[in-house]
Design brief:
The complex is a heterodimer of chains A (112) and B (114). Chain A is built from no helices and nine strands. With 112 residues, chain A is mainly β. In chain A, the strands form two sheets. A five-stranded mixed beta sheet of chain A has the order 1-9-8-3-4, with no helix packed on it. A four-stranded antiparallel beta sheet of chain A has the order 2-7-6-5, with no helix packed on it. Chain B has 114 residues and is mainly β. Chain B has strands at 5-7, 10-13, 19-24, 31-37, 44-50, 53-57, 65-68, 75-79, 88-95, 104-105, 109-113. In chain B, the strands form two sheets. In chain B, strands 2, 4, 5, 6, 9, 10 and 11 form a seven-stranded mixed beta sheet that branches. In chain B, strands 1-3-8-7 form a four-stranded antiparallel beta sheet, with no helix packed on it. The mean pLDDT of chain B is 92. Classes of the chains: A mainly beta (112), B mainly beta (114).
């Protein structure tokens, strides 16, 4: 069973903020939320991850609700180059864990 | 060393032939992963190595598939007796144990079986 639920597609106007939601209602206390994106014909690219605090880096911000059952990836000023499939993944970070499992993701289209 | 390299980028083969793909990870990364991705789907995990040891294999990895990572450096993924259903993008990723940054992916090898 998928651990996350994402809308299959979203549109965003260029220059506006893109807010991509993810539901992970069964997340465990030791599971992190990861976001990747995949631009056409390329491999997935790591964006950001977090446990319970909001996180920000040069690419995006991650907002995790207090109950941790959902999160939002924010691209503050979307450009055409942000058009991609965005994947939300929950996983435990640990020595023997290999559970970076991808769902179908959200296809974000940034329009001029 | 600027990232994960995969070779070839594209491979067209006839059904029944054997193919081999190569992945060169980031040099200081001790973990290496193989994924398969079909059109419209997210990447599916196949197998991973820590150094030269293959620690996990997905049930997707039938006995026609074999992966190696001699000396814990580059890795190869071989598919024997290819079938049309093997047509997919094969992605390689690497990471340094568990530092939380996630994986660095290569650009993949697109296999077409005709």
């Amino acid at each position: 069973d998928a651990k996350t639920t994402q809308p299959p597609s979203m549109d965003c106007a260029e220059g506006r903020a893109a807010n991509l939601p993810c539901n992970h209602s069964t997340i465990s206390g030791n599971e992190y939320v990861y976001w990747y994106r995949q631009i056409h014909s390329q491999g997935p690219q790591y964006i950001i991850h977090g446990l319970k605090n909001n996180e920000t880096n040069e690419m995006a911000s991650l907002i995790i609700t207090e109950d941790r059952k959902s999160s939002t990836l924010i691209l503050p000023h979307a450009t055409l180059r942000d058009t991609a499939v965005y994947y939300c993944i929950v996983r435990v970070v640990g020595y023997n864990n290999n559970d970076m499992r991808f769902g179908a993701g959200t296809r974000l289209t940034v329009k001029p | 060393d600027t990232g994960v390299s995969q070779d070839p980028r594209h491979k067209i083969t006839k059904r029944g032939q054997n193919v081999t793909f190569r992945c060169d990870p980031i040099s200081e990364h001790n973990r290496l992963y193989w994924y398969r991705q079909t059109l419209g789907q997210g990447p599916e995990f196949l197998t991973y190595f820590q150094n030269e040891a293959q620690l996990e294999k997905s049930r997707l990895l039938s006995d026609r598939f074999s992966a190696e990572r001699p000396k814990g450096s580059f890795s190869t993924l071989e598919i024997q007796r290819t079938e049309q259903g093997d047509s997919a993008m094969y992605l390689c990723a690497s990471s340094f144990q568990e530092i939380g940054y996630g994986y660095t992916f290569g650009s993949g090898t697109r296999l077409t079986v005709v």
